[in-house]
Design brief:
Strand content: under 5%
Largest sheet: none
Distance between the termini: 36 Å
């Protein structure tokens, strides 16, 4: 079970830092810009402000899983824990009914309140959207993109030693503290003790499950057929379309059912010896492609000129195509390597609003 890269096989520090920096920058872009949340002139400030928190979390989650030899089940569970931590304890958007009132999404409040959880005062629909998109866009997709650009020997190995992890950990804590104390982050709202206790308990439970030894066991692959990677990606895109339109409790039920079905199917396929990194890329990148396509239909958080908004949407399309195309080229058959463990791309979710 790998914990540290063998020193003799370690690449130079500069090469090891390239994927770390890439993930640090890609995570905030995917989380907040890839779906049209900001106009083009806000891209750089968003990446700089949110990179330590979003990128730091993605790096720490990826490094923890790779050091444990746990693979994607642990990454998805840790990503879910981060989603609850972020939306429930840091910016507390999960419990703040007026969190979007000063944005162009203020009209979504009524739809969110149609699925309020009694006693805890949060919308299950918003929880699905917030946490689901942190899993898919903030954590999983950026990790898959960066790992797909690496060679098969470096893809599933740790990138950082303990000093590097300590630095990233401090960056993450400072970034989270910045959001927690900022009027634009937590918006001067403080959840009730019951709500904070609930969120903390969920985070701890998800982390505990993610650390179970079962995710570190290597399971034999079976000689079952799997679809072409493009069909896997298409399935995720279609599932995405089914999770957004229906409001209220029926919509939540539909979204959870579709997510569970697609997740189970992806887990089943990933147990095949024919499942490789191209399938992982297709499943993860489909969420970013879907988000980028919807960017043209949704407004940014803050009002922007039509030209700036359109330029942002076009930039999202260009970056998404470059990421998907470049990663796919890197994984052409001559260099493609198998995925390390069962791969679960996570449940499809709606446009992120956290």
């Amino acid at each position: 079970m790998p914990t540290e890269p063998d020193r003799a096989d370690r690449p130079p520090l500069r090469r090891r830092l390239v994927p770390v920096v890439a993930l640090l920058l890609l995570a905030p872009w995917a989380a907040e810009c890839s779906w049209g949340g900001f106009a083009i002139d806000d891209f750089l400030p968003v990446i700089i402000a949110l990179g330590p928190m979003y990128g730091g979390a993605a790096i720490l989650i990826r490094e923890a899983a790779r050091r444990l030899g746990a693979g994607w089940p642990a990454i998805v569970l840790l990503a879910a824990a981060f989603g609850v931590l972020q939306a429930g304890l840091v910016d507390q958007s999960l419990f703040n009914p007026g969190y979007l009132d000063d944005t162009q999404y203020a009209d979504t409040r009524a739809a969110a309140e149609a699925s309020l959880v009694p006693g805890l005062g949060f919308s299950l629909r918003q929880a699905y959207d917030y946490v689901g998109n942190h899993i898919l866009l903030t954590i999983c997709a950026p990790i898959v993109f960066v790992e797909s650009f690496l060679g098969a020997k470096r893809r599933h190995r740790p990138w950082l030693g303990r000093p590097g992890l300590a630095v990233v950990g401090v960056l993450y804590l400072l970034g989270s503290l910045l959001v927690f104390t900022s009027p634009e982050g937590r918006k001067n709202f403080l959840a009730s003790p019951l709500q904070l206790s609930f969120a903390t308990a969920v985070v701890l439970a998800l982390v505990a499950v993610a650390l179970l030894p079962r995710w570190r066991r290597t399971r034999p692959r079976r000689a079952r057929r799997v679809p072409h990677p493009l069909w896997v990606g298409l399935l995720v895109v279609v599932a995405h379309l089914f999770t957004d339109p229906t409001p209220g409790w029926p919509g939540v039920l539909v979204a959870l059912t579709v997510a569970a079905a697609v997740g189970a199917l992806v887990v089943y396929w990933s147990g095949s010896e024919r499942w490789d990194q191209r399938h992982v890329l297709a499943a993860a990148s489909a969420n970013v492609v879907s988000a980028a396509a919807f960017a043209y239909l949704v407004p940014p958080y803050s009002p922007a000129s039509p030209a700036a908004a359109l330029a942002g949407d076009v930039a999202v399309t260009v970056v998404t195509l470059a990421l998907v195309g470049g990663a796919w080229w890197r994984l052409r058959p001559a260099t493609s390597g198998p995925a390390s463990t069962i791969v679960d791309a996570g449940p499809p979710a709606a446009i992120p609003r956290s």
